[in-house]
Specification:
- The chain is α/β, with parallel strands linked by helices.
- It has ten helices and eight strands.
- It has helices at residues 34-44, 62-70, 88-93, 113-116, 123-132, 147-153, 180-184, 213-223, 241-251, 257-271; strands at 4-9, 48-52, 75-79, 101-107, 136-139, 159-161, 193-197, 228-231.
Length: 276
């Protein structure tokens, strides 16, 4: 089984030659380069990963795409998209023409992202994403219900929910899952899948992360293994990469061998259009 990590951030250091966005602060450290990504994967026995560029470098996807072009069998990219660019609709049409680009990733916090959820001037984006069958990795921290009316209007949108819909800087243990029903509601849309990524970050106890088993089982019961994508989000993990992987390879006894193959490999290939 070729394990695929559905989310690792990668970014370059802030230098005069390649500066970050003015005023940006390090997301999870001063850098996490392609070489560091590959070393992490190798140490964990992970064959492939999807790189998610970070906000401090603006809409620069080239760093990640250069890595994907250099390692096409191991790396691919969910890029950051400038919704307010003058030619944004045209960009979207050719978005996946670049080798290594799988789709779009949006973290719905701040502007213009919150307006994208509600304002009519952005209606073209949702319609075009549905028409193009473009995978969209996203989450709306603390407000997953904001996606409900969008999915009602565009039921064939291909949405991949990050971090099981949890707030990356939100509460931990049982409190982290208080609004899980808002996320589970989206399972009724056949093209919606969910990343069981970064989940140990929501546990105050080490492996086997006992507070995570019940919500993961609820996700499993609603989405099924064929719509669950394992991921690490390694640069913000509170616990180790290996234990994050062991949670799904060993600790969750209700998973069959076939379930694990889907969650750790085949689901990312299917929902991100990245064939094994």
């Amino acid at each position: 089984m070729k394990i695929t990590d559905a989310q690792i951030h990668a970014w370059y250091p802030n230098t005069p030659q390649r500066p970050w966005v003015e005023g940006a602060s390090p997301p999870h450290g001063p850098q996490f380069t392609i070489d560091q990504v590959l070393a992490t994967m190798d140490a964990g026995g992970v064959e492939r990963c999807i790189i998610v560029p970070v906000s401090c470098t603006g809409f620069d996807n080239d760093f990640a795409l250069d890595g994907a072009r250099a390692h096409p069998n191991r790396l691919a990219v969910m890029g950051r998209f400038d919704i307010d660019a003058a030619d944004a609709p045209q960009q979207l049409v050719t978005w996946r023409d670049r080798p290594g680009m799988l789709g779009v990733r949006i973290f719905f916090m701040g502007e213009p992202w919150m307006s994208l959820l509600t304002e009519q001037r952005y209606a073209w984006f949702w319609a075009d994403m549905e028409r193009l069958r473009m995978p969209l990795m996203c989450t709306v921290p603390g407000n997953m219900k904001a996606l409900h009316p969008i999915m009602d209007r565009h039921p064939d949108l291909r949405i991949i929910i990050d971090h099981s819909g949890r707030h990356p800087r939100g509460p931990k243990d049982e409190a982290a899952w208080a609004d899980l029903d808002q996320t589970l509601h989206l399972a009724k849309y056949k093209n919606t899948s969910i990343k069981v990524s970064s989940l140990p970050s929501f546990s105050t106890k080490p492996y086997p992360f006992p507070s995570l088993h019940k919500p993961i089982r609820e996700i499993y019961d609603h989405f099924g293994p064929e719509r669950m994508l394992w991921g690490s989000d390694v640069t913000r993990l509170d616990w180790g990469y290996a234990d994050n992987l062991r949670l799904f390879t060993e600790a969750l006894e209700f998973l069959s061998a076939n379930d694990r193959e889907w969650i750790l490999s085949r689901a990312a290939a299917k929902h991100c259009d990245w064939p094994l």
